[in-house]
Amino acid sequence: MRDLRLEKGLTQEGLSKRSGVSLSSLRKFEQKGVISLESFLKLAMVLGNLERFVEASKPSGNNFTSIDDVLNKKENKRPERGWRK
């Protein structure tokens, strides 16, 4: 996010004002990587990067209809390491 902010020519103060995320939260995020999901999405929206996160959150193709489907799939999966016939 810091790199995106700098590419857009925004200061921390400018991004804070445009996004509604407090300056202290933005600084903490850039220094330590800690921020709420809401604030993260606000920053992504202002920086024009929100679509990447929307795409990443779409279902991956597992069309489970119940918790039993999930459990059955998990039980039938072979271990990836050390499995022998």
Automatic annotation (TrEMBL):
<protein>
    <submittedName>
        <fullName>Helix-turn-helix domain-containing protein</fullName>
    </submittedName>
</protein>
<feature type="region of interest" description="Disordered">
    <location>
        <begin position="58"/>
        <end position="85"/>
    </location>
</feature>
<feature type="domain" description="HTH cro/C1-type">
    <location>
        <begin position="1"/>
        <end position="53"/>
    </location>
</feature>
<feature type="compositionally biased region" description="Basic and acidic residues">
    <location>
        <begin position="70"/>
        <end position="85"/>
    </location>
</feature>
<dbReference type="InterPro" id="IPR001387">
    <property type="entry name" value="Cro/C1-type_HTH"/>
</dbReference>
<dbReference type="GO" id="GO:0003677">
    <property type="term" value="F:DNA binding"/>
</dbReference>
<dbReference type="InterPro" id="IPR010982">
    <property type="entry name" value="Lambda_DNA-bd_dom_sf"/>
</dbReference>
<dbReference type="Pfam" id="PF01381">
    <property type="entry name" value="HTH_3"/>
</dbReference>
